[in-house]
Amino acid sequence: QVQLVESGGGLVQAGGSLRLSCAASGRTFSNYAAGWFRQAPGKEREFVAAIRRSGDNTYYADSVKGRFTISRDNAKSTVYLQMNSLKPEDTAVYYCAASTSEYSGNYYHTAGYNYWGQGTQVTVSS
Questions:
Q1: pLDDT value at position 125?
Q2: Residue ranges in the chain whose pLDDT is less than 50
Q3: DSSP assigned state of 87
Q4: What secondary structure letter does DSSP report for 83?
C-alpha cells in the first residue's frame, strides 16, 4: 500500500507559477512510476505528466509541454510538478498517482495507476 498526499495548490494569476508536491509513504516509492492528472468541473480526469521510477524518462500532455516539469526525489519519496506560464484553463483539482507498471503506454491513462492521492486545487485567474 502507498499513501499519497498532494500539497502546493492555490490561487494564482495567469502567467504565474506554482509547484505541487506529492509525498508518498508506505512502500518504497522508487518502485513506482508516478503521474499527475487533473480534473476540471464537469470534465473527465486527464493526464498531465508522468515520470519513470528512476526519473530518467518523463512524459507530458501536449497541453502542458514546455510549461510544466515533473521531477522526483526518491530519497524524499516525493514527486513534484513545477507549473509555469499558468493559464485559466489549467484550473482543476490536481491528483498524484503511483503505478507499478513499467510500460510507458500505461502512464497516460487513469487505469494504469494503482494508488491515488486526494487532490489539491489549482485555480488560475485571468
A1: 97
A2: none
A3: -
A4: E
Query: What are the start-end ranges of the E strands in the chain?
Result: 2-7, 10-13, 18-26, 33-39, 46-51, 58-60, 68-73, 78-83, 92-99, 115-116, 120-125
Q: Which region, left, alpha or beta, applies to residue 60 given φ > 0 means left and ψ of -120 to 50 means alpha? A: beta
Return the residue matching grid coordinates 486527464.
Answer: 46
For residue 105, CA distances in Å to 34, 39, 42, 62, 69 come to: 13, 20, 26, 15, 19
Strand arrangement, sheet containing 2-7: 2-7, 18-26, 78-83, 68-73
pLDDT for res 61: 98
pLDDT for 27:
85
Q: What is the rounded CA–CA span in Å between residue 54 and residue 67?
A: 22
